[in-house]
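Fold it.
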Amino acid sequence: MRAHTVTRYTVAADASPEPQASITGVTSFFARAWAASEIGDPASPIYDPLFAGTSVTPVSYLLPDASVGGNGFVQITLDAAGTSASVLLSTGVAPTQFTVIVKYTPAESKEALITPFFPPTISRA
């Protein structure tokens, strides 16, 4: 099997992509797009427990340069030199937001609610 090189680029608005680090010996490279709704689905390969029980509406739109924006994810999987790595990328132009609900039970005593917290004092000897 022939090995290849993959180069990471930094991309900024109104600028040409700039090459960064390269990975050599790449034997497999795969990218897949996922809808935003997949992150809260326990059956999905990109499931994240932080979003358990959430409902995320997938949004996508065509940008003027013909690229696609929205709140989806792209999963990149790469094999090189006997190692496999996978990363999940999100867009910087997500038009929706996530709300994380945290279960909280307040203290039973009013005294506990008004006790001030003083951070430790750091002194030098």
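The chain has one helix and six strands.
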